[in-house]
Write a structure and sequence with these properties.
The protein is mainly β. It contains three helices and 21 strands. The chain is globular and about 70 Å long.
Length: 311
Amino acid sequence: MTSPAAVLRLAKRAQPPRPRLGFVTAVDTGAQLVTVAFEDGSTTSSLSWASSAYPAPAVGDRVSVVPHSTGWVVMSKVTPRPQLIADQQVVVPMAHNWQGFYHESNPAAGWNWYDYANITDKHEAAAAWQGRVPPQQGGAGYVQTTWDVRASILTWGALASLVPSGATISQVRLTLRASWVQQDAARPVLYGHAYTPASPPRDVVYDTNNNVVTPGAPPSFVAGFGPLRFPSMVAGDAQTITIPSSWVTALLAGTITGLGLYSATNADGVLFANASHLANVVEIDGGYSGDTVWDSDDNLQITITYSGGTT
């Protein structure tokens, strides 16, 4: 951010700094100051606002910040102008995927978390779990007595970085494919989280004798962002979920960094994964082998609709 002295020097040279656009990330109503995150990734705190034009700052607002003789002032909330150019879309695959499970048979361990960011197996890397599900299946007459509670933490990167600079995002949609369900009519349950690769879910820590040193932490979600429950699914179903506009604003502001799928009930047990089948199948020693062919690669992708911006 240009300092007040630099603003004055530029003004004297007839080279005034240009107004900037950013998102409000914090509001101190007592001091009447806000913090703004700008679209270039920088952040500036302790900015005053023009109360006559912008009486009620709120986290997530897109605002115009203008130079003043004493510094910078948040002048107003910016609303998108009507666009004559057709909206554009970009499809973004998942960038990070933490899958967690809690063994009810081993509560002392808490939650186990696995980072699937660098796994090359498409089925594992592009899969997500939610709900209370059996960790194993038995044969005829088997009675399920132990269960896992599952959660998935997903990110796609900073939302503003996924579209051209200056673009206005009008919609974000998430594609889910149900490969397996614990019960028919299972419903996706969505939350907003604040995890990052630098600050992931806390995994359980064991000593060399496999004793628990630190239990793994349960999934943590940002207050006010979830649970959102969506229409039910059966195995083989696909569903495209429109993310609420308030959540999109929060993703742009960094209030939330991604989405989580979580439920602790049997009825919501779902494996979200791409369907696959074998091609070029041959029989070998009474079994079968072939090439895995994926019917779709769009599970857990987001589709961003936007307008404007420069490349």
